[in-house]
Design goal:
Number of helices: 1
Number of domains: 1
Helix content: under 10%
Structural class: mainly beta
Distance between the termini: 32 Å
Shape: globular
Radius of gyration: 14 Å
Number of strands: 9
Largest sheet: 5 strands, antiparallel
Order of helices and strands: EEEEHEEEEE
Oligomer: single chain
Length: about 130
């Protein structure tokens, strides 16, 4: 049962193989970034010049590589948002921190929230449901 990460704007499959493929933008540099599909795994692969331009705490913008839509979460600009589908499960939303070095990921579905990452506890007041 493979998790399929989708663009919330165009519905494109963002992990057609092993990694999630996004466009990262930081300080005028653009490049592809490959993320782990396992929540809580913060290893990534990207162009060295893009990685070298980032300092801990910097905000990174993520875009869909298919439609170029901004993936910033609509309810919290500190996070990026993807949709998550898996057979036999209801659709879910995944939000992960846009701050380089902040390890916080949340998987949201039907009133339940699963938190991942060493920094997830720093966001106890986060409103995932827009109320």
């Amino acid at each position: 049962m493979k998790n399929i990460y989708l663009c919330p704007h165009c519905g494109a499959n963002l992990n057609p193989s092993v990694k999630i493929v996004l466009v990262a933008i930081h300080r005028g540099r653009r490049g592809l970034i490959l993320l782990s599909p396992m929540p809580g795994n913060y290893k990534f692969i990207c162009d060295r010049s893009l990685a070298d331009s980032m300092d801990v705490g910097d905000l990174v913008k993520f875009q869909c590589p298919v439609c170029s839509a901004d993936l910033t979460a609509p309810r919290d600009k500190e996070f990026a948002e993807l949709h998550l589908a898996a057979s036999g499960r209801s659709p879910r939303r995944v939000q992960f921190s846009r701050r380089y070095g902040t390890h916080a990921t949340f998987v949201i579905s039907d009133g339940e929230i699963a938190a991942y990452g060493d920094d997830a506890d720093e966001f106890p007041q986060k409103n995932f449901f827009g109320v």
